[in-house]
Amino acid sequence: MYSAIVAVPTSSGTVALQGDYFGSSALNENQLGLAYARTVASQVDVGIKFNYHTLKVPGYGNASAINFEAGVLIHITDKVHTGFHIYNPLGSRFGKNSNEKLPAIIKTGLGYEASEKVFIGVEIIKQEDQPVTINMGLQYNVQKKVLLRVGVSTATSNGYAGLGLQLGQLRVDVNSSYHPQLGLTPGLLLLYNFKKAEAL
Questions:
Q1: Using only C-alpha atoms, what is the Rg of the chain?
Q2: pLDDT tens column, 132-159
Q3: Using CA atoms, how far apart are residues 116 and 14, in angstroms rounded to an integer?
Q4: pLDDT tens-digit profile of 53-103?
Q5: pTM for the whole thing?
Q6: Stretch 104-118: mean pLDDT, rounded?
Q7: d(CA 124, CA 110)
Q8: Residues 173, 192: Cα–Cα separation, whole Å
Q9: In the 8-state DSSP scheme, what is residue 103?
Q10: CB-based contact 51:33 (threshold 8 Å)
Q11: Burial 21-53 (b: 16+ CB within 10 A, else e)
C-alpha cells in the first residue's frame, strides 16, 4: 500500500492532491483525490475532497467510481481538539450497473495535548456493514527531533508502535503493527516541509 500527498497553503485555504495505490498486479485499487481546506472561524477548520477510484482485475477488466468526503476539526481549547469525518456518504458504485460499491465510513475523534511532549488521541470509526472500531494512541516527544508512539485498534485487537525523527525539513517515521493472524506489517512515512524563499 502506497500513498503520496502534496499540500499547498494559499491565502484562501490549502489545496492538496493525494494518490493511493493498494494491491498487486493480480488485483489493485487506485484513488486520486483533490482536496481543499480552510479555517472558517477562529476555532473551526473544514475540508472537502473529491476522489476518482479505480479497481483493476486482469482478465475481468476495470471499474471506476467517483465520490467525495468531508470533515470538520474543532479546537475546543488550545489543548483539546475534536473532529468529524464522513467518506462516500452517497454510496458511489463501480460502473452504472454494478452491485459493487465503496462503503460509507463515518469517523469522529478526540485529541488531548497533555503537555508539550504528550498527545493522547481516540478515534471511533463506523464503516457500512461492519462493527464499530475504536483506535487509541499516545505520542511522546522524547525531544524536539525524536518522537515515539504506541496504539491499539479494537477491529482486530492489533497494536502498533512507531519512531519518528526530524532531520531538518525532513521527518522520517518508521512504524509497525501486529495482527494476530498476519503478523508484523512495517510502514514508512516521509514528510517534507518546503521553506518559503526569504525576501531579499
A1: 19
A2: 999 999 999 998 899 999 999 887 778 8
A3: 26
A4: 998 888 777 888 999 999 999 999 999 999 999 999 988 887 766 677 888
A5: 0.83
A6: 95
A7: 9
A8: 12
A9: P
A10: yes
A11: eeeeeeeeebbebebebeeeeeeebbbebebeb
pLDDT digits (tens, 9 = 90+) for 125-135: 999 888 999 99
| 130 contacts: CB under 8 Å, gap ≥ 6 | 103
| Cell reading at 39 | 479555517
Name the one residue in this structure whose C-alpha cell is 517515521: 173
The confidence score (pLDDT) of residue 60 equals 76
CA-wise closest residue to 47 among 72, 26, 64: 72
Can you tell me the distance from the alpha carbon of 26 to that of 21, in angstroms, rounded to the nearest whole number? 13
Q: How would DSSP label each residue in 141-168?
A: EEETTEEEEEEEETTTTEEEEEEEEEET
Angle at 198 between CA 194 and CA 199, to 5 degrees: 145
Q: Which three cell numbers stand for residue 43?
A: 476555532
Q: What is the dihedral of CA 118, 127, 43, 196, to 10 degrees?
A: 70
